Amino acid sequence: MLKPPRTPPAFPELMQETGFPRLMEVLKFVDALSFNNKYLHWDKLIRYEPPAGLTHEEWWLGLRFSRTPLFKPIPLTDKQGHFFKFLVTDPIPEQLHHIDLGAGGRIGVPEPVTNPETKDQYYMSSLIEEAITSSQLEGATTTREVAKEMIRAARPPRDRSERMILNNFQTMQQIGKLKGQSLTKQLILELHRLVTEKTLSDATAAGRFRTEQENIVVGDEQGVIFHIPPPANQLEDRMAAMCDFANSKTPDYFIHPALRAIMLHFWLAYDHPFVDGNGRTARALFYWAMLHYGFWLCEFISISRILVKAPSKYGRSFLYTETDDNDLTYFILYQVDVIRRALKELHDFIKAKAARVRAMEQQLQGTLLFNHRQRALLSHALRHPQFRYTFEGHRISHNVAYQTARTDLLALQENGVLEARKVGKTWYFTPSPMMEAKLQAMA
Fold first, then answer.
1. What is the pTM of this model?
2. What average pLDDT does this structure show over 28-51?
């Protein structure tokens, strides 16, 4: 359960109470202040023993004093007009390097996601996973199995949870088409409409900003309030400023594109411009930004799959930022790690699938159920799931009679590992979506 973090001592008052001579003494401990290079919030810092000779307050003052000159502001402001800010501390540069190589470059990218014959299955798998887990973060209760069946069978959703998942899936599909556009108010509203259509108690709230009469807060079921968004009458200007930021018009210094995408994620969630669906829209906006900035592999990963495993950590990354003088570094540190883990999950999944294919090929070699020609075709089909086989093509490949080739393919269809479709006068056979499961069961 998410609990509000303890708010740090106010920096100006702490400076005044400590005094300059004592501050100089505190800063002599600068090497010990960072605590194993962890970027500690006050809520965590007070759980550790401070460096010898310092109180927790002095330790915190030294940390804040050393961080302050490194902060850079962004155009997002809080309700009092104070700017949010960030600094690039370890391990952010290393994580950004991995994101540049792993999500934007081509070196080290798994071959299956660049291969036209196989990338679609990874693309669809990622979209479905993100649709399900992003909805689960917002309370959807539909199981993965039911949600996958609904999407793959293209059946209508039966309840609000299923509708949330289907909306997210369709939104993710649209983001791939919208990534070339600049961010505008209309695009933000379109993302929200796609995400929330037919899921809101007030159907007119989809695709529009909340009004001054729609006062909302972010809290839990026990009535604990975590966040009060800015007033509705500020939203037009705040969203315009967000669009300028997304389109790299502001600020006047370089911000790494992945950091810009992460900040947009936070920005929309902080402003909470809608009656409902803000979290899903914020994550959709993050994906739009990553693809817009050229991180093409993000179409194949799911950040919500990581976030849903520890939703309280996700929530705390927002609260740490808001309670520590608008320091976005906490949210950035959490999100770059989430992206890294999502990329690693993709690589691990592809490696595991490749290992399963190799194991299945070995099992095929020892089975008596299929002849050597059929085993060769199945081995090829495991690696080329979009390939189309014909009687004539199989005949030529194995130098056999037409009737032999026909018998081979029809037997594979009868066993459920190939599907057949007639186009004109020609029968085409394609690998069944259930081919791997069928072969595993036969083995």
1. 0.85
2. 84
At residue 32, the pLDDT reads 66
Give the span between the Cα atoms of 154 and 170, in whole angstroms.
Answer: 12
Assigned fold of 369-442? Arc Repressor Mutant, subunit A (1.10.10)
**What was the pLDDT predicted at 105?**
64
Torsion sign over Cα 53, 56, 58, 61? positive
Q: Per-residue b/e over 282-298, b at no fewer than 16 CB within 10 Å?
A: bbbbbbbbbbbbebbbb
The CATH code belonging to domain 75-349 is: 1.10.3290.10
The 3 state secondary structure assigned to 350-404 is HHHHHHHHHHHHHHHHHCCCCCHHHHHHHHHHHHCCCCCECHHHHHHHHCCCHHH
Check residues 183 and 37 and name the one with the higher pLDDT: 183
Length of the chain: 443
Whether 74 contacts 248, CB under 8 Å? no
Phi/psi of residue 253, nearest 5 degrees:
-140, 165
Model confidence at 413: pLDDT above 80: yes
The per-residue pLDDT for 109 is 61
